[in-house]
Automatic annotation (TrEMBL):
Gene3D superfamilies: 3.20.20.220. It comes from Anoxybacillus suryakundensis. This is proline dehydrogenase. Its cofactor is FAD. InterPro entries: FAD-linked_oxidoreductase-like, PRODH_bac_arc, Proline_DH_dom, Proline_oxidase.
Amino acid sequence: MLAQLSKNIFLYASQSKVLNQAAKKWGLRFGASQVVAGETIESAIKKVRELNEKGLVCTLDHLGEFVSSREEALEATQYNIRTLEAIYRAGVHSNLSVKLTQLGLDIDFDFCLNNMRQIVETAKQYNNFVRIDMEDSGHCQATLDLLHELRRTYDNVGTVIQAYLYRAEQDVKDLKGVSLRLVKGAYKEPPEVAFQDKQQIDENYMNIIRLHLLSGSYTAIATHDHHIIEKVKKFAEENNISRDQFEFQMLYGFRTDMQQQLAKEGYTMRVYVPFGNDWFGYFMRRLAERPQNVAFALKGFFGK
């Protein structure tokens, strides 16, 4: 019960615009520097290069969400384009992850779609890939609708499906052939739309992983759960699924020992590397996911 209370507090804080604005002035505090790779593109590229040297690939995420003005959304669009350009110039191995609410989804669908077209077109020019992060359930359908529009023209864009949503299985079936990152889910969702029980979420998570792998689609398994990872390894081996068809993903600053071990074993291991001054919501959600994360983040250590 105490753990659930702690989780609710962190999730509530993650959605506070007042605290988010204040955090931009604080700079990286409360251990956030252990899980956020600095506030600038330059600092993020430096971290990506260090990770690449350890055999890890990356995806960069310029933090920010729930933008309410067109000006902010246009600035975020250009910042993401500059990030893609910086990745190319530096010659590092990294994709780009984006949140649609940062790019104007709450303002106007077509406006956001146009911003995304610019980003995905830039990525195509640099032979790169863009992952659309999934946000809360209220944005799920709009995100998938926008992805569908983009994929009429581009094949270098995919999204994320959250296993705790009841709709996850059908969405995975509908997205056969699309590169998906599969996650358990990190937002506070009501029982009307999402499983609340951990065991049910874990079971559905493995279910959608199996579905997407067996469909021949590229699958990114994003988890720190070593039990899930071992099950995926075994399932892939038993079903002759090539390691070229899937990858593991983990968050920057978490389970670094396991990240390097997976890379040494020959699996593609991609690190989700967030950066920027709008870090507070992301950091609060990480602390909410597991009570242990509080201590681990503050110590810059996870997994032992």
